[in-house]
Structures are given as C-alpha cells and as structure tokens.
Design goal:
The protein is of the alpha/beta class. It is about 25% helix and about 25% strand. It has helices at about 30-45, 85-95, 130-145, 160-165, 220-230, 240-245, and strands at about 5, 50, 70, 75, 100-105, 115-120, 120-125, 150-155, 165-170, 175-180, 195, 210, 215, 235, 255. Belongs to the DDAH family.
Length: about 260
C-alpha cells in the first residue's frame, strides 16, 4: 500500500511563516478539521496515512513536504529556507530512516515545496526559500540516483508547486502539468500538456496526485472542471483556513508510492 506521511497541526499554527500573504486570523479548530478531511481524502485514494511525530512548538510543522524529497527507496532531507524550520527536517529524518535510505542536503537552502518531479526530471524552483546552493547540492545527490535537476526561477508565489503541479496522465496518455502562467513560466516544462488555471483562480494550480485521482481545493471549481474534462477523477476538499498560512495541498504530505 502506498504511504502518505503527514504531521498534525501545531497549536502555534497561527504564528506560521508568511512570505506573500498578509497575516489573517486563523480558526485553529476549523484548520484542524480541514486537515483531518485532507487526510481522509488520502485514505480514500488508497494511501496508508502515517502521522510523523507532532512538533507542537513549530508553527509550520504541518507542511511536512518542505522537509524531505522521496525518490523511490531514497529520502533526501532538505534544508528549509526559514531557519526556524530546520528542526522539523531533523524530526522527519529520524522518522523516515526506518523505511528509506536517507541522504541530507548540507549546503544552501531548499524547501520541498519547490521540488516538482516528472519521471526522471526534477524541476526545482529558485525562490525566497530555495537558493542556488541548495539546488546544486540537490542536483549532486539526485544525479547519483538517476535524476536530472532543472532550475526554475520564480518570484510571484511561495513555492514552485504553488503555481505548477504534475496532475498525472490524462485520458489521451499525455503527461499533464497544471500551471498558473502568471506565476511560473510554462516554457520550462518539457514534453507535457499544459493546463492553465482558470482566470481568477490564481491558487488553482496546486493539485495533489494521489494514486489514480487528484485531491484538489474546492475553492477553484472552474479549474477543477478543466481537469475533469481531461478524464481526471477529482476529489475536492476545503483548505480555506489552511490557505491563510500559504498552504497548498501538496505541502501537507510526503507521498511514497
């Protein structure tokens, strides 16, 4: 059974790091309920949902994707761009060591949310959270595992996967990338079919491929319809409260399939 690693919401979640959004009040009970519904969607998709240890004093700990990159039987532990988040990566490393061969980045800054894998290509966003040194370090490690790393500069959103995600293979056999072309240059992606997020749905380019379906934010119905027209099974969930912390669907899990 494929595994989705998650981590519970910290009681300090409202004090999360913010880069592009203004801080707004967060209803912690509602956010926790939305996170539970997200985990339920992963279970519906056929995943064994494994909770990593809670980190109650780390506001951003629920965004577990930023702390590791899973590549088959290997896990590369990142160096999150916000120094306050480095202990999260240490906790993730300890938990994954029993299941994967663990490697660690030792230089630069890199958030897992900036890492988008399509086959043997790994697109990495250079952002406020991920720098050139971190990308070079990842390229060395991933290269030895058979992956090519491609740098993607961006500045209009938090992470690369805030504005572009891999949706999977459509009903015509094409690899599909969902993208907000105002935030991420679509021309960087090779040999894929590009689907732009609908006008007015700027955050609609973040979808989580989970087995044979897509978990998708319910706030972007026109983009969801575009995906359904390509043959994707879309499971919509509400993450509105979590989005106040610059959350995306992908950032709240580590997928091992």
């Amino acid at each position: 059974m494929p595994i989705a690693f998650t981590r519970g919401l910290s009681p300090t979640f409202a004090a999360c790091e913010l880069t592009h959004l203004d801080r707004k009040p967060i209803d912690l009970d509602r956010a926790a309920a939305q996170h539970a519904a997200y985990e339920a969607a992963l279970s519906r998709a056929g995943f064994d949902v494994v909770r990593l240890p809670d980190l109650p004093t780390h506001a951003d700990a629920v965004f577990v994707e930023d702390t590791a990159i899973i590549l088959g039987e290997h896990a590369i532990i990142t160096r999150p761009g916000a120094p306050s988040r480095r202990p999260e990566a240490d906790s993730t490393a300890q938990s994954l060591a029993t299941r994967f061969t663990v490697h660690r980045l030792t230089r630069g800054r890199l958030d897992g949310g900036d890492v988008l894998r399509i086959g043997d290509k790994i697109y990495v966003g250079q952002s406020r959270r991920t720098d050139c040194a971190g990308i070079v370090n990842l390229a060395g490690l991933a290269g030895r595992l058979g992956y090519e790393v491609i740098e993607v500069p961006h500045e209009h959103c938090l992470h690369l996967k805030t504005g572009a995600t891999y949706a999977g293979v459509d009903d015509q056999g094409r690899d599909v990338v969902l993208v907000n072309p105002d935030w991420i240059d679509p021309n960087v992606f090779e040999d894929v079919f590009l689907v732009p997020s609908a006008p007015g749905e700027d955050f609609g380019a973040n979808a989580l491929k989970a087995g044979d379906r897509l978990i998708y934010p319910s706030a972007y119905p026109r983009t969801a319809e575009r995906l359904r027209m390509l043959g994707f099974q879309v499971d919509e969930v509400d993450i509105g409260e979590l989005e106040k912390a610059e959350a995306g669907l992908t950032c709240m899990s580590l997928i091992a399939d």
